[in-house]
Specification:
alpha+beta, 20 strands, 7 helices, disordered C terminus, disordered N terminus
């Protein structure tokens, strides 16, 4: 926030509240410096990929940030409220609409339009934290080391392993995570002692966690203390909490499938882009046209 009477925001930008212009130096803008944008960690820079189709529609300024894989809408709102975002040299306001003809900048750095959408699957090992925060040891972004700016879709606990999807397409995140869509997630789980049919029945029907019951799910026994479970919702540490309520402790939890996407072709710690078929099936599942995100 701007200090009282100083005319400056917290990061030192000069503000003129009468016309909401931002002036910080004789060079008003410079290209944005994204850590993963168009640069390999151990190699020369390369040009950013672009959409194969032009972006023509207007969108809200906070959605612009998620569309370009920079941050969440909530984080974008905080940037806007702190007067760190400009549109055509004017400080942005919440709800402002932008289009390809506008120049959007954060902290004086221009954010280019049209970074290509990316969809990646990753075999997360135990010990990797699902966060975009760079200061967190073994965060998922550093572990993958992708040259473009990406972020995870949903979460997978640090002490869990298996499939997680990452993207720079902020719109598809909510489409995948929306509970009412009933998208399946499949896990293989082991617990600390053998269970009986009563355990299977209660888990299948739903268990009260965090003050409300879980949705019905499907369970298949894999061994005396191992089972496969298919959920259509993704609440915080859901499987671990469900087992705990019934007197069991999860020893291993491994996700093998999200919707139709599996770990096929990956070993622990590896990632690869979704194939054309996987992308088309994903867009069909979230009710998008098959021509969206084609890269």
């Amino acid at each position: 926030r701007a200090a009282a009477g100083s005319g400056r925001s917290r990061d030192g930008h000069q503000r003129n509240c009468s016309d909401r212009r931002v002036c910080r130096s004789t060079i008003l803008y410079r290209p944005i410096d994204l850590p993963h944008a168009g640069t390999y960690q151990c190699g020369p820079p390369r040009p950013l990929k672009r959409h194969t189709l032009p972006v023509t529609d207007k969108l809200r300024i906070n959605k612009f940030f998620t569309h370009h894989g920079i941050c969440s809408r909530r984080e974008a709102d905080r940037l806007i409220e702190s007067a760190r975002v400009t549109i055509n040299q004017r400080v942005a306001g919440l709800g402002d609409q932008v289009g390809p003809g506008d120049v959007i900048a954060r902290d004086g750095q221009v954010i280019p339009w049209g970074t290509a959408p990316l969809y990646i699957k990753y075999y997360k090992p135990v010990g990797v934290t699902t966060t975009s925060e760079s200061h967190v040891p073994r965060n998922i972004i550093a572990e993958i080391g992708h040259p473009e700016r990406i972020f995870p879709i949903g979460r997978l606990d640090k002490d869990s392993s298996g499939l997680i999807l990452l993207t720079n397409d902020g719109d598809i995140v909510n489409e995948i995570l929306r509970t009412e869509r009933g998208h399946e997630r499949e896990y293989e789980v082991s617990v600390d002692h053998p269970f009986d049919q009563t355990f299977i029945d209660r888990m299948t029907q739903g268990v009260v966690i965090l003050d409300r019951p879980t949705k019905p799910c499907r369970i298949e026994r894999l061994g005396p203390a191992r089972f496969r479970i298919i959920l259509t919702e993704g609440r915080n540490r859901q499987i671990r909490r469900m087992c705990q309520v019934l007197g069991y402790r999860v020893l291993t939890l491994h996700r093998v499938r999200i919707i139709h996407i599996t770990l096929d072709g990956l070993v622990s710690g590896q990632w690869k882009p979704l194939t054309r078929v996987e992308r088309e099936q994903l867009f069909l599942a979230v009710r998008r046209g098959s021509n969206q995100g084609a890269t």
